[in-house]
Design goal:
Elements (H helix, E strand, L loop, with lengths): L1 E12 L16 E11 L2 E7 L6 H4 L5 E4 L3 E5 L1 E3 L11 H8 L4 H6 L4 H9 L3 H17 L2 E7 L6 H17 L3 E9 L10 H18 L5 E6 L6 H12 L4 E6 L7 H7 L4 E4 L5 H7 L5 E4 L1 H6 L7 H6 L5 E2 L13 H10 L5 H8 L1 H5 L18 E6 L5 H4 L6 E5 L4
Parallel strand pairs: 1-4, 6-7, 7-8, 8-9, 9-10, 10-11, 11-12, 12-13
Antiparallel strand pairs: 1-2, 2-3, 5-14, 14-15
Helix pairs in contact: 5-6, 6-7, 7-8, 8-9, 13-14
Fe (iii) ion binds next to loops.
Length: about 425
């Protein structure tokens, strides 16, 4: 039991039981000024205003721990619905190649990119991968992340994909963060399969998916459905195979072109389609009325100097949008969701209220966790951030680059 007093702004209050925020409703981010919050058995039990004496009901409960926010604010912890944070080594040489003008696709065709990470992952043991990944989870917590999706996809052989997913399972077991695992065997075609892409797709379908499902290693299935990677037809075959094992899709789509990824994602009831730099009227029409969360990854667009997904146009069309980090060694070597929040405002013109919903409730939905996380709601898990004193809610995205989070409480701890 914990009672937090003197919270300057308690933001993200929501008792409407909406599953996501869309269109004009994305601006609805309820804030209570000068508030208290009561946590019981890891859940948000109650909250209210410091004016009046409602909080005094809880002060004398036996065993209650009282914490003074000292003017700091409380928000739902960030949910990061798209990362690749299990990886071996780093790729700063390619980063310099990019500065010299090489594109992401050119680097890949030279055997770099995802294939570079796959080579390094192959040479690492499960223990080594775990030891490398755990501090990344701890680091993102210090920036306010409380739930994270992690993908495989640097294995590209059955054994190495399973190895990656077992590392994710271990992270799930030991970390206080809520972790969701996604199988991304179809991230790239390994060199040995060059010119035989169809055979690699067969391997994913006939060998990898059944093994992953048998060991219960994945919550979701992903395909990099884009120009130069996997086609919509191949994606459809893989998603059908995954569906037989109850794996719901979350796709990489429309990062490199109008690839048809969004359409195939919606057709197979994907929980999310992610990246979306190439989203036109047809794609927006397809997304309307679906249960698929359009997810933008501003870190990758920033790091690769890409065009920006048309977030405003999507919101104006009544769609929801989510923003996640894409934390990975090739296109977004940062999992800092405060930076993602700022980028959503600065580069994609979301107002702060919309941006907060985009990194909390909407990303919770994109991991299937909206019933438990993403808002300050009685009965939801107490995954919250407590900030240093900040003068306003808008200060959070405004003061980009510094860490405003004092602590991230997960299930109240
Ligand atoms: O989300 N776009 C595809 N996959 C990753 C990049 C992975 C990598 O370059 O290592 C992404 O950006
Ligand atoms: Fe990604």
């Amino acid at each position: 039991m914990r009672l937090i007093l003197n919270i300057r702004y308690l933001g993200g209050i929501d008792e409407s039981s909406r599953r996501w925020a869309a269109g004009v409703d994305m601006q609805r981010f309820e804030v209570l000024e000068n508030a208290w919050l009561f946590i019981e058995e890891g859940l948000i039990a109650d909250y209210g205003s410091m004016h009046g004496n409602s909080w005094q009901n809880y002060v004398n409960r036996p065993g209650v721990r009282i914490m003074d926010a000292e003017g700091g604010s409380v928000f739902p912890a960030f949910c990061d619905s798209h990362t690749h944070l299990v990886y071996a080594g780093s790729r700063e040489k390619e980063y310099v190649d990019k500065i010299h003008g090489l594109s992401y696709e050119e680097i890949f065709r030279r055997g770099g990119g995802i294939l570079n990470s796959a080579r390094r992952l192959h040479e690492s043991t499960e223990d080594q991968l775990f030891e490398e990944a755990l501090p990344r989870l701890e680091e993102i917590r210090t920036y306010g992340t409380g739930a994270v999706e992690i993908k495989s996809g640097y294995g590209l052989t059955t054994d190495d994909e399973l190895k990656m997913l077992r590392v994710i399972r271990r992270l799930k077991e030991v970390s206080p963060l809520t972790v969701r695992a996604t199988f991304l065997g179809a991230h790239a075609v390994p060199l040995e399969y060059k010119g035989r892409q169809g055979e690699y797709v067969d391997l994913v379908i006939n060998e990898m998916i059944p093994r992953v499902a048998e060991e219960g290693l994945a919550d979701f299935i992903d395909v990099f459905c884009d120009q130069g990677f996997f086609t919509p037809d191949e994606t459809a075959r893989i998603l059908e195979a995954g569906a037989k094992y109850g794996l719901r899709p979350k796709l990489h789509a429309n990062e490199l072109g109008y690839s048809g990824g969004i359409q195939v994602g919606v057709k197979y009831n994907a929980l999310s389609v992610d990246h979306l730099e190439y989203t036109g009227d047809d794609e927006i029409r397809t997304l309307k009325g679906s249960e698929t969360m359009p997810t933008i990854l501003p870190g990758a667009a920033f790091f690769l100097n890409m065009i920006h997904a048309p977030a405003r146009k999507m919101i104006e069309a009544g769609l929801p949008v989510a923003f996640a980090s894409d934390f990975n060694p090739g296109s977004s070597p940062s999992g800092n969701m405060q930076l993602v929040l700022s980028m959503a405002c600065i580069q994609y013109r979301l107002v702060p209220e919309e941006a907060f919903n985009a990194v909390t409730l909407n990303t919770a939905y994109a991991m299937g966790l909206e019933d438990y996380l993403g808002t300050i709601t009685r009965g939801k898990q107490a995954n919250i951030i407590l900030t240093h004193p900040i003068p306003s809610v808008e200060f959070m995205p405004y003061a980009y680059g510094s860490n405003k989070v004092r602590m991230t409480l997960l299930a109240g701890n």
